[in-house]
Design brief:
This protein is mostly beta strands. The chain contains 1 helix and 25 strands. The protein has 2 domains: 219 residues, Neuraminidase (6 Propeller), CATH 2.120.10.30; 86 residues, no CATH class. The strands form 8 sheets. The chain has a 4-stranded antiparallel β-sheet, with no helix packed on it. A 4-stranded antiparallel β-sheet has the order 5-6-7-8, with no helix packed on it. Strands 9-10-11-12 form a 4-stranded antiparallel β-sheet, with no helix packed on it.
Length: 309
Amino acid sequence: MAIDGLGQLWVMTGSELLQVDADSGTILRRMQGPGQDPLTLALAIQPGSGDIYVTSGNGVEIFRPNETDPAKAWKHFSNERLGDLAFSADGRLWGVRWTGRDIAAATPGATTDIVSFPMSGRTVGRAELEYRMAGLIDSIAFGAAGTALDGLLLASSNLRQRPAVVDSVATLPHEGSVWMIELASRRMLQVAAGGTRGESIVATADGRILVAQTGRVDEVAPVRAPNVTAISVPDGALLPLPVNQIAVVFDQQMWTGGADASANDAASDATSVLNPENFRFTALGANAGPSSCRKASPGTPLRARPSSA
């Protein structure tokens, strides 16, 4: 899926290119490939022109959504068969090479080629090898400009071919990973491992990485201090003591001691947001002093401060 500069949602089905209403999910247009050839699954929208580059059994095709003449709506771009597409900041189209013939998932020590394409001149549409990476790279994305991921190529890997059942027990190996490549230096770093899949990777406009797993979407984000966005004690409220419970909302997911931790363990874990020792109520302004604070006047709220969660 991809959203163009006009906010229109485009979806590849493995057979067709669809324009979909992002609010209702209604299919607005259905496009088959040139010559009625089936399309596959990858697409990327060229910044500026709005042209949609899609993969097919014949390589890469260009669809011009604003072309009124159906005979001119499609144009062949490359004979290279690819599994994913993405545009870099310099305007080149990048892709994950996929033959459609070889079963790389069954090959020991399999590697994946990441290629790019000149967009003009005599070599337009001819794949140029950029990186050869170990494993089965499935999806690529570029970090958004102005974020901590700017200048980085992100890649997610998929699983090797494996038995579906071992010792009469269904198994789900955790072999998916996320790679980060610094384009200027060509240095590579594996930033995450242990995923059940790496079907798709997206770099968001606010500097996060989203990876599609088997049954969920995982997030990889730069570490930053959390901020309190809401608290159940309104500004200026009277607080009759004792106060048994106060709710605090943060701007990011907080550590609660792990999925297997009991309530008592989570409350005693020094790094858990559920540990009351990680919070302090602080009287501000005229309310500050040695006496107990029963009332917080406007402009001098009681604030919850996470100290280690």
